[in-house]
């Protein structure tokens, strides 16, 4: 049911009224201050180039119109509470899917570089490596 302002009253627990069906609005904009960790983008690019943008877990090399795509993934996360270092040995070259699975704990990389599916306990293979990028096994 719409009120006189052309909106529906907010549902319990919500402060803002809901828009009517078909009501198209642009998202709002506001200024904020964000404190974030400054990562070494050049280091991440180097690692991705050393692996030719090929995922160290699954071997996929996503190719986009702008070129191959990969993500630099920290083995031990930067910042509190993990306080990992932004160094080559703490970085992996992963596809976006494996990056998320790794960061959220669905995939584990053991010290012998065996990759495990944490949900099934099954080994997924061995982390792909290149001679020019030594992964720190004890991070
Ligand atoms: Zn992958």
Would you mind describing this structure in some detail?
This protein is an alpha+beta fold and 139 residues long. The protein has a domain at 41-126. It has helices at 41-50, 96-103; strands at 63-64, 67-68, 71-74, 91-94, 107-109, 114-117, 123-126. The chain has a 3-stranded antiparallel β-sheet. Strands 1-2 form a two-stranded antiparallel ribbon. Strands 3-4 form a two-stranded antiparallel sheet. A hairpin with a 2-residue loop joins strand 1 (63-64) and strand 2 (67-68). The model has no long low-confidence stretch (mean pLDDT 90). The structure holds zinc ion. Residues 55, 57-58, 60, 94-95, 97-98 line the site of zinc ion (ZN).
Write the layout of secondary structure elements.
Layout: H1 41-50, E1 63-64, E2 67-68, E3 71-74, E4 91-94, H2 96-103, E5 107-109, E6 114-117, E7 123-126
Antiparallel strand pairs: 1-2, 3-4, 5-6, 6-7
The structure holds zinc ion.
Zinc ion (ZN) binds near residues 57, 58, 94 and 95.
